[in-house]
Amino acid sequence: MIPTSRTLDVDAIRKDFPVLGRILPNGKPLVYLDNAATSQKPKQVLDALTAYYELHNANVHRGVHTLAEEATALYEGARDAVASFINAPSRDEVVFTKNASESLNLVANMLGWAEEPYKVDADSEIVITEMEHHSNIVPWQLLAQRTGAKLKWFGLTDDGRLDLSHIDEIITEKTKVVSFVLVSNILGTVNPVEAIVRRAQDVGALVVIDASQAAPHMVLDVQALEADFVAFTGHKMLAPTGIGVLWGRQELLEDLPPFLGGGEMIETVSMQSSTYAPAPHKFEAGTPPIAQAVGLGAAIEYLNGVGMDAIAAHEHRITEYALSRLAEVPDLRVIGPTTAEDRAAAISFTLGDIHPHDVGQVLDEQGIAVRVGHHCARPVCLRYGIPATTRASFYLYSTEAEVDALIDGLHHVRAFFG
Amino acid sequence: MKLDSMYQDIILDHYKHPHGRGLRDGDAEVHHVNPTCGDEITLRVKLDGNVLTDVSYEGQGCSISQASASVLNDLLVGKELGEAQQIQEAFLELMQSKGQLEGDEEVLEDAIAFAGVSKYPARVKCALLSWMAWKDATAQALAGAPVKESA
Ligand SMILES: Cc1ncc(COP(=O)(O)O)c(C=O)c1O
């Protein structure tokens, strides 16, 4: 469905999310501002899960009975939904995983076991950035340790953006792969894809994009990104936990070796050796998360119904409003871009000397759910000389009234520890 | 209000005016972190025979973790090891009680203020950070870890 207007009806949307009406044990209504950690789920997704289990449950790809065919059609239908959601040239380029972390580990392992020209070895360099989620750092550290490759990264500017000033020294002829986050989960920064992709293509490096915080919030077009792999995770985009996506260019998925072996991913097996199913099945060993994939399909249908550009526009408005109101709070320092330009709706901040744990605890007492800590991006905290941050993150159902509640809550925190 | 049961005045006082903070001579040093939230502590213990003559520390973290280190310093410095270990165990038991214990004031003194924290699973680790570091450092000191001078 093509949205005709860039506005969305927040009140109507909120009614689709049962948990948003919840009153907490302390009598306060829930103000859920932890969307970058995971989103809430609408009835439509919950209903799809229930209907799947009540009516169609069977294992996929391996039965001739009616339920097996229905389950397979639903699972593969979810793949179609993902493919069109991200504008993939082919549905066979969509690999289901359990989350973004598995998707990223899958790519790192494919490259570790690959033949030339993709093989990462002791002469290779791997490039990431200082604002990556640990899920896009550790797999590359492991690959570097196991192969002897060198791990390099882009640093950050003081205002929370990538420092690309030394791009030609960081991405070199030795670079085999460049992996970076499209939208930072801690800083909220939207990164300039084109400059990085151009340089990577010039030196023949593969490009991996972690779109975990992009897919839920904006139009994601893998062809426009010109990346080789794109990873994201279902639970941040209204779907259940346990389902993630790795999109990869078809010829790469054909050429690269499998990582996990098992049922579903084979063509024939003898005791001596096996041949593999074509992609994407080559990368989906074992019984997949079927109901979760069906849930992801329903989530995508819901998001399409609202319209991704309407969602992006709504979040942009909320972000602008939140940044302007946060600026009113004394001693509050935003960690990341302070304007809404090239910025998404996850806002990290510190509040004087008050530790984020204490901020989060006092906010919780008022029903406000934020995330505190290093948000699985500890290098960012080290870069800005802070132990941790408090992060408020918004989504399609967030309201200005919730921003106001956050601001009131922060004044209360200051009074409490003042 | 529930918050006051966690943030007792005693805790806030220790947080704002920590006792014994700063690193001094020790027989062993450890560095412990709480990986979920980034709280960190560096802690040294100094023993004279069987007596714990100093616990010095430096760290960053929330009010609960900082106040807890201050209370630890108050409670344990000057004690014989056996008694210090009993206090540590009593504190551990209190923190694992999920709000069921009040704590023995004879043994735990100011530390009974942390009873309310034990109801918040995410914060129990904050309260225990320095106590686990102390236990580890003491074990290392007894095992004859290399002496560290203060910088
Ligand atoms: C930018 C980014 N990358 C990767 C991940 C990992 O997602 P998951 O835990 O679902 O694998 C997250 C989620 O926290 C994220 O925000």
From TrEMBL, chain B:
Positions of the NIF system FeS cluster assembly NifU N-terminal domain: 6-126
UniProt superkingdom: Bacteria
Record-linked InterPro entries: NIF_FeS_clus_asmbl_NifU_N
GO term, biological process aspect, one: iron-sulfur cluster assembly
Gene Ontology molecular function, alphabetical: iron ion binding; iron-sulfur cluster binding
Record field: transmembrane: none
Record-given protein name: SUF system NifU family Fe-S cluster assembly protein
Organism, as annotated: Streptacidiphilus pinicola
